[in-house]
Design a protein that fits this description.
By secondary structure, the protein is an alpha/beta fold. The chain has 15 helices and 14 strands. The chain folds into two domains: about 140 residues, Aspartate Aminotransferase, domain 1 (Alpha-Beta Complex); about 170 residues, Aspartate Aminotransferase, domain 2. Helix 4 packs across helix 12. Bound molecules: 4'-deoxy-4'-aminopyridoxal-5'-phosphate.
Amino acid sequence: MCLCVIERRTKMPAIQYSLAAGRLRRSEIRELLKLTRMSDVISFAGGLPDPSIFPYQAVKEAAIRAIDERGPLALQYSPTEGEPFLREQLAAFMQRQGESVAADDIFEVASSQQALDLIGKVLIDPHDPIVVELPSYIGALQAFTSYNPEYRGIRMDYNGVIPEELERTVAALCSSGRKPKFVYLIPDFQNPSGITLSLQRRKKVLEIASRFDLLLIEDSPYRELRFAGEMLPSLYSMDTERRVLYVKTFSKIFCPGFRIGWVMGPADLVEKLVMAKQGTDLCSSAFTSFVAAYFIESGHLEKQIALGKERYLRKSQLMLQALQKYMPEVEGLSWSKPEGGVFLWVTLPEYMDTEEMIKEAAESKVIFVVGKAFHCDGSGGNTMRLNFSYPTEEQIVEGIKRLARLIGKFVRHESAHVRPQA
Ligand code: PMP
């Protein structure tokens, strides 16, 4: 018996991993997020909502209703397409947001991250070209990379992805008989850059997609969190050819703990995604679906969004003011001015490398995400992503002071003026 235990401890099976497993990498963000649980670290790293605005009481009441009114269904398996009551509530919510959607169009997923993985599963064969923004959401790159695509990155400016570059890249691929499987875009307050695709460019992107017969994936977790400027139509609502797959989630507008997302788009593709989900988890959680449905039905979702917009406007302004006040005055240093969402993007002079800074930043107890992690082509070494929704107002000001001090140390130009720290 004793010998048997020893043998079990020492003998390791020679596990034969798949090629896909060989491509798996831990997400840099999720690794950094572990530090956010340490109370003295100021984190600009994650994309976490402000927990002080989570609607605890309303969720509690919705959970009680889910059990009292729908107990046997709420604790049971649900259809893979999603709990019908939630699909109805989601459709009604989307309609109130100006989208033309019916309950039957909605496919519930276990958060939008699952949708991204399912998209990879049903669309990408090894070495297929796919097109993403430069930079793009790291979690999407992580999900797609498991299926081994060939990335083509399209640069952005402060108006979003540059259509001429998109056109050039797609044309080159198509002329060599390699039409991209899809173009993945985050048009509203993009993760990581906070940048929004302008209306004119939305039209242009759709026109290019139509001309080259492309599938567009519109991932839009932050859209409802617009706290300045004018709401722009989604690509999904502008599209007249059913070539946009629209991916939505509760994570930023309500709370990520629910792990609920939803997808709408070409019926045939959605059907494939449903089949892929069956192999992944059979169905989403009926219980959280009912809680979420009651939450929406009683009008709390819109209230929650209003609260989020108010809070994030204030926090983004504080961060912008602190950047303006404390950052060194140096050529090549700029940042985005988001009109919504939870992120802001800092570009440093080209000779700076945020990867070199991150260790020292952690020692100074402030963390961010290095921009390179969001670039499928390994560029973006002089960029970083800052989140303003999670840190407290005091932490935003103190964290930017620490960051500015750190960046100041890396300034090379003699002409640069480093502001004295208050
Ligand atoms: N897409 C984008 C653009 C995101 O920013 C995120 C979360 N950071 C997700 C998808 C995944 O969100 P979730 O899985 O929580 O719905």
